Automatic annotation (TrEMBL):
This is 45 kDa calcium-binding protein. PROSITE patterns: EF_HAND_1, EF_HAND_2. It is found in: Golgi apparatus lumen. InterPro entries: CAB45_EFh, EF-hand-dom_pair, EF_Hand_1_Ca_BS, EF_hand_dom. GO terms for cellular component: endoplasmic reticulum; Golgi lumen. GO terms for biological process: calcium-ion regulated exocytosis.
Amino acid sequence: MASRQAPLCGLVPHCLWLLGVILLMDVSARPANHSSARERAGNKDEREILPPDHLNGVKLEMDGHLNKDFHQEVFLGKDMDGFEEDAEPRRSRRKLMVIFSKVDVNTDRRISAKEMQHWIMEKTAEHFREAIEESKVHFRAVDPDGDGRVSWDEYKVKFLVSKGHNEQEVVEKIRNGEELKVDEETQEVLENLKDRWYQADNPPSDLLLTEDEFLSFLHPEHSRGMLKFMVKEIVRDLDQDGDKRLSLPEFISLPVGTVENQQGQDIDDSWVRDRKKEFEELIDANHDGIVTMAELEDYMDPMNEYNALNEAKQMIAIADENQNHHLEPEEVLKYSEFFTGSKLMDYARNVHEEF
């Protein structure tokens, strides 16, 4: 027994080393400029305090990246979690056909652009309601005295505690006007948050946020003023010549964090291709090659019915194989990966069974 175990024990370090190399290769092949909502995670307390980087049903992320899950969010709504990769395929097909029947209001077994537009608006409103409920919970967490208003200092305390600072020490230093010792990154985040806090604070400004104002702070898509602020931030980050507008080269330029290997190159090519298509077909409304802040604001407004109709037409065009400007059950099942994020096999054989 001992003679057989010795070689195995000698292999363990080599196996662990090989596993480490594989994991490092996997990390290095994952560029910083691509992510999806299902991949995002973080410290729970910090997530509850910080405004989310990702906004369901909004086409751009807070950093200006395209929302890769947008189509699934506006097609599935709260049902997104029901279409995970490991879900039972037959059950997923049945769920997808139930959604199809709900979108198909006139029951002609075809989805028109108008029906899809109405559905997108309905799912977007669903995300709005979900954000409101979450914001109420988070508001109570940062409003310890329950007076219905949150001061910047109250919020600052909660944020620093979520970063590992001692609450009593922070409170005392703020009360005494003493300098808080935080690292450079935390200080930068605090300054950005304070700018955002000012923007969410409706006139007359008092640095006290009500529950509605706190909702706008966390979810700028709920306020026209905060949506403007979000657009300005995105333009500021992407605008290279300082004209406060975006040209196509500026919009498609690769961000910091590009990975120099073939997998990274393929993904970066996809980044450029997707952003070019979005810029030319949807964002640049007058097709003059320049996107103004007003155009970007209209594009990002999740409750813009005109945008919802354009999006509906685009979603139909992706899967409309027979070119009749409608979606049929077979097409939705065949292009299930686009609509649900999961590929459901045997679509043709199962369509009649599931419908």
